[in-house]
Design brief:
mainly alpha; 22 helices; membrane; single chain; transmembrane helix; transmembrane; about 475 residues; two-stranded antiparallel sheet
């Protein structure tokens, strides 16, 4: 795995500057509760933290309308529990601020809400870091890796999902990190801890978004096809690792079943089974009974409605247009897939498998929304780096290629800005960004975080020195 210390001083400064800029951008672009979806996550988190209960009636004002479940006359969140569980440390941080008299750092939003918004902010930042490392791991130089990461952070829906409490950004981080770890495995037996770690990350992400468990199939298949013939035939070495990994995945599925049993008195996987507003969610067969062709158009590109390319006002909130319309820069990624398959076929096929699984589920779903496939967006974008590298190395096509990439980047970034500014609760172009009033909270949090990281790093260094001196 790549270590921060391997970069030059100038590279480290560029990385830290980029991370700092994105941290500020994601924070000020946030706007508290945007709708019923994130409101339901927040209500569940507060209910678990303050009342040690999954019943959300005391906090139903955050839900507002649609995303809840009703059973035996009691109100529950219809969201999976993973996102709410990840909010627990941030609610604890909020209460620490209240305890020391810093509960009014901001001017507009409640302390708990600002604190938990740091969850998608941080997940988005870490997601960019992991994507950068994935580029470097795949052999791209520092410049191409950093530039590709910056373009991804600005010109795709990554910016939007960084700003609210929907489950999509934490889901992306866990799955993306699992794939980065997967590519770090050289020998399944010798690197079995990495296999277990990747499985655990995907396993926990299933508590965030249920369909993620299906990603384990392609991951395990990748391990098998990248083995040498001799290693593959010697199944006694790798089979126990796979069995243990499946047990780990089963543990997280068990956790989800246990949560739903505590909440609904039933061993079910779908927490939205009892949502009265979406009766199709009572079963997988009903919820996945939508029009596949229409759903595919909503997720990628609807050739019957190409005017969505310029009618931006028709593609906002839940009607955000498909990925190839919202972020035209992804057309460069589509071209890059040909180079990706040629240079790293097994990695490319793994990405294609993950994308296919997500798109199939999203397109068949009766409420096909582009954010439902957000988890695989980095894998969709990744081949962009191959296109960029090819353009920069070509004397003939460098100038026209970079002009095209620049134009598509500017169009994509402008559209993503528009989507952010006009999203529910974001205030429109006049009041966007909303969290500019909460900057004192941002400053205090990141100063504290940097201090904690510095202390941990100092402790680890001193521990290493003590161990080294004791051995000598």
């Amino acid at each position: 795995m790549i270590k921060f210390s391997t970069f030059t001083s100038m590279q480290r400064k560029l990385l830290l500057s980029t991370i700092s800029a994105f941290a500020l951008l994601f924070f000020v672009s946030s706007a508290g509760i945007n709708g019923s979806n994130d409101g339901s996550h927040f209500a569940l988190a507060k209910s678990i933290y303050y009342n040690q209960s999954t019943e959300i009636k005391p906090f139903f004002n955050y839900v507002k309308c649609c995303d809840y479940a009703v059973k035996n006359g009691k109100l529950y969140s219809d969201r999976l529990p993973g996102n709410a569980l990840l909010m627990m440390p941030f609610l604890a941080y909020s209460n620490l601020l209240k305890l020391i008299g810093l509960s009014h750092l901001g001017q507009k939003f409640e302390t708990d809400l600002v604190a938990v918004t740091l969850l998608p902010n941080l997940c988005a930042l870490l997601g960019l870091v992991v994507l950068f490392l994935l580029f470097r791991q795949s052999g791209f130089d520092f410049f191409i890796s950093l530039l590709s990461t910056i373009i991804y952070g600005l010109a795709t829906l990554h910016w939007l999902e960084a700003t609210h409490l929907f489950s999509h950004m934490p889901s992306l981080l866990f799955v993306l990190t699992a794939i980065y770890i997967t590519f770090s495995v050289n020998d399944v037996q010798k690197n079995q801890n990495l296999v277990y770690m990747a499985t655990a990350l995907v396993g926990f992400s299933t508590l965030i978004e249920l369909q993620n468990i299906l990603f384990l199939g392609p991951v395990y298949l990748y391990f098998l096809v990248t083995m040498g013939r001799r290693d593959f035939l010697n199944y006694k070495k790798w089979l126990p690792v796979f069995i243990k990994s499946i047990t780990i995945a089963g543990f997280f599925i068990g956790c989800l079943l246990f949560y739903n049993y505590l909440t609904f008195d039933e061993f079910i996987l779908k927490s939205n089974t009892y949502n009265p507003n979406f009766p199709e969610e009572k079963s997988f067969s009903e919820s996945l009974g939508g029009d596949f062709v229409a759903g595919l158009g909503k997720l990628l590109i609807d050739f019957a409605n190409l005017d969505l390319y310029y009618k931006w006002y028709e593609g906002k909130n839940n009607d955000i247009s498909g990925l190839l319309i919202t972020s035209p820069i992804l057309w460069i990624s589509m071209i890059g897939f040909f180079l990706f398959v040629k240079k790293a076929p097994y990695k490319a096929l793994l990405f294609i498998a993950l994308i296919t699984i997500s798109i199939l589920i999203g397109a068949f779903h009766k409420t096909a929304l582009v954010r439902h496939i957000f988890t695989i967006q980095p894998f969709f974008f990744f081949p962009f780096a191959y296109s960029l590298q090819s353009v920069l190395r070509s004397e003939k096509y460098r100038k026209p290629g970079m002009i095209m990439i620049t134009i598509l980047f500017l169009i994509s970034t402008a559209r993503i800005y528009y989507i952010n500014a006009t999203f529910w609760g974001h205030g429109g172009s006049r009041d966007f960004p909303q969290f500019k009033t909460e900057l004192p909270f941002f400053i205090i949090f990141y100063i504290s975080l940097i201090g904690i990281v510095w202390l941990c790093r100092s402790y680890l260094r001193s521990s290493e020195k003590i161990i080294t001196s004791s051995r000598s």
